[in-house]
Automatic annotation (TrEMBL), chain A:
Matches recorded under PANTHER family: ANTIPORTER SUBUNIT MNHC2-RELATED
Family: Belongs to the CPA3 antiporters (TC 2.A.63) subunit C family.
Listed name of the protein: NADH-ubiquinone oxidoreductase chain 4L
One Gene Ontology term, aspect cellular component: plasma membrane
Pfam families the record matches: Oxidored_q2
Species this chain originates from: Allochromatium vinosum (strain ATCC 17899 / DSM 180 / NBRC 103801 / NCIMB 10441 / D)
Keywords: Cell membrane, Membrane, Transmembrane, Transmembrane helix
Ranges where the record places region Disordered: 95-115
Annotated transmembrane regions: 6-25, 37-56, 68-89
Localization, UniProt: Cell membrane
Membrane topology recorded in Swiss-Prot or TrEMBL: Multi-pass membrane protein
TrEMBL record, chain B:
Protein name per its UniProtKB record: NADH/Ubiquinone/plastoquinone (Complex I)
RNA-binding among keywords: no
Record's keyword terms, sorted: Cell membrane, Membrane, Transmembrane, Transmembrane helix
Subcellular location: Cell membrane; Membrane
Family note: Belongs to the CPA3 antiporters (TC 2.A.63) subunit D family.
Span of domain NADH:quinone oxidoreductase/Mrp antiporter transmembrane: 123-419
Membrane topology: Multi-pass membrane protein
Length: 115, 478
């Protein structure tokens, strides 16, 4: 039983590390803003996975509250950062949305301004 | 109840909330907050200078659950510098923004940035440092884009994204350390840390993320556009304080946490990047077309000097040599803080009154803006490292110790950087001092010129002469 739990914890933790690496790769290799933002959020999710896996302290003991608190705070920070980056992206879009869509990435097709 | 540690973080935060609620009063409330915060910060520094390092457990929870604050000599020295510079920037901002709409946007973000700075210098645990780092990054990016131009928005979006990448990497390092040791408090982690794969990966992740934020060559690409496109008071804060905060964190981790884990080759690598920063940053500053871009590249170079100290600190035996190197490092950081803030404020005034900051067309600036030109000259003294500026003493010790410890190549880098710095400062001054009729009055805009002038004078004269008390302060806690 405890072996299975340990395996779950290990899987969860390594999945977190994998997420983080995927996020870094995607952040560096993709130009559009929204892809970079999703990549950053995936990196964050990876770190949170690791922290959640760490919180487990055995079947009988309650989980460690500190990593949980860290994840909560981390989510708040990640949401605020994403919001600010999106605000910047919208600003750039308003300035010259049609000319260079690749720099900031939001595709113009959505608002139907041009065919 | 009256705890300077808690007040230094709580006052600017309270001020930020107040100016958000009462935007009409933002200038008055902002200035009151600035004065109160600086007073508390100086009180804190004097307390640390007089006795020992300070500790405070917020809410009485204590480690390992609660959030603690602490101040040792290093933190107190940086808090004093940061708050004095921030006060000068606040005074300058009242004149720079006037009663315009952007003044209402400036104050909440600026006080939030101030909160994050003080919080970062005083935080006692790794996660609190992460939160403050993020708060600093978010408010700095928003402030940098206040001009509202396309270039500013683009540069600061890049700054924000790079900063986020850096702090996510830092956070993974924190998660690794918590996995291995189950504590977050800096002192407890330092006690528990043993050399091994976990410690090395955490070191690489955390320092790597912070290098991105502190713009060490070749990771500096985001800094010049972001700093050069911000409004003058914001440029001053970004170059003098925000970058310094990331470097402070590198030092804190390197000296407190990873002391004994960080190997000499790793330190050599950082020193090498620092050398690259000194040479490349100075060269680009020399070639810069615009005054603010010159100042931004000069920041890249000055950051490089700070990293030249790491291989020496790692190689130095404990005791006098180490203390002296650390004092020199802090002197350099403090001097650069004052000098660069003064430089940017003066550059902002030049830009405001001439309508541009192209160095080529600055002819006669010495006659039309004597105080601003004098400020740039004084800040230049500190940037080059002429005596009696703090930079002079710092470089003196750097060169001496590099030769004493058998790493003479860092001395060559420091000297080459000094020559290049002299070249780019004199290039500006040579433009400014050509013949035009002399104006009647020395000050053209006292409210913006006097804070800039005082900062530059502090950087050129006071910090160097105050080397002894600063050494005493650092001896108190480090």
């Amino acid at each position: 039983m405890s072996h299975e739990i340990l395996l779950t914890q290990l899987l969860y933790g390594s999945a977190g590390l994998l997420f983080f690496l995927l996020g870094v790769w995607s952040f560096i290799s993709h130009e559009p803003l929204w892809r970079k933002l999703i990549a950053l959020n995936i990196m964050g999710a990876g770190v949170f996975h690791v922290l959640v896996a760490v919180a487990y302290r055995g079947l009988d003991a309650p989980p460690d509250p500190v990593p949980h608190a860290l994840v909560l705070t981390g989510i708040v920070v990640a949401v605020s950062a994403t919001a600010l980056a999106l605000a910047f992206g919208r600003r750039l879009d308003r300035e010259d949305g049609e000319r260079t869509p690749d720099v900031h990435g939001i595709d113009d097709r959505e608002d139907g301004t041009h065919a | 109840m009256l705890d300077p540690l808690a007040l230094a973080v709580a006052l600017p935060l309270l001020g930020a909330l107040l100016v958000t609620m009462l935007p009409g009063w933002s200038r008055t409330l902002g200035m009151l907050t600035a004065l109160a915060t600086t007073t508390v910060a100086l009180w804190l520094t004097v307390t640390v200078w007089g006795s020992e390092s300070l500790h405070s457990d917020l809410g009485g929870w204590g480690v390992p659950l609660g959030i603690g604050l602490r101040a040792d000599g290093l933190a107190a020295a940086l808090v004093a510098m940061a708050n004095l510079v921030a006060l000068a920037i606040s005074i300058h901002a009242t004149g720079y923004f006037g009663a315009a709409e952007s003044s209402r946007k400036f104050w909440p973000l600026w006080l939030l940035l101030w909160t994050a700075l003080n919080g970062l210098f005083l935080a006692a645990d790794l996660f609190n440092l992460y939160v403050m780092l993020e708060l600093l990054g978010l408010s700095a990016a928003a402030l940098g884009a206040l001009t509202g131009t396309r270039e500013a928005a683009e540069a600061n979006l890049r700054y924000l994204l790079v900063g986020l990448l850096g702090s996510m990497t830092y956070l993974l390092g924190v998660a690794l350390l918590y996995t291995a040791y189950g504590v977050l408090d800096l002192e407890l982690v330092a006690e528990a840390l043993t050399p091994g794969p976990v410690a090395w990966s955490a070191l690489a992740l955390m320092i790597g993320g912070l290098l991105l934020k502190s713009a060490l060559f070749p990771l500096h690409f985001w800094l010049p556009p972001a700093h050069a496109n911000a409004p003058a008071p914001v440029s001053a804060a970004l170059s003098a304080l925000v970058v310094k905060a990331a470097i402070y964190l590198v030092l804190r981790l390197w000296l407190d946490l990873f002391d004994g884990i960080a190997t000499l080759p790793a330190a050599m690598l950082l020193g090498l990047l620092g050398a690259g920063a000194v040479l490349w940053g100075s060269w680009r500053a020399l070639r810069a077309e615009r005054l603010k871009l010159l100042a931004a590249y000069s920041t890249v170079a000055q950051i490089g000097y700070l990293f030249l100290f790491l291989p020496l600190l790692t190689a130095a035996p404990d005791g006098d040599t180490r203390e002296r190197l650390l004092t020199a490092l802090v002197l350099l950081a403090l001097t650069h803080g004052f000098a660069k803030a003064g430089f940017f404020l003066a550059a902002g005034l030049v830009q405001k009154s001439t309508g541009h900051d192209r160095i080529r067309e600055l002819g006669g600036a010495a006659q039309s803006l004597p105080a601003a030109t004098f400020t740039i000259g004084l800040a230049g003294v500190a940037l080059i490292g002429l005596p009696p500026s703090g930079t002079f003493f710092a470089k003196w010790i750097l060169v001496g110790q590099a030769i004493a410890l058998g790493q003479w190549w860092w001395a060559l880098v420091a000297m080459a950087g000094t020559l290049l710095a002299a070249a780019y400062v004199f290039r500006v001054l040579a433009r400014a001092f050509n013949r035009e009729p002399t104006p009647k009055c020395f000050l053209t805009d006292p409210r913006t010129e006097i804070p800039a002038l005082l900062l530059a004078a502090l950087s050129a004269l006071a910090v160097g002469l105050a080397a002894q008390p600063i050494a005493v302060l650092l001896g108190a806690g480090v």
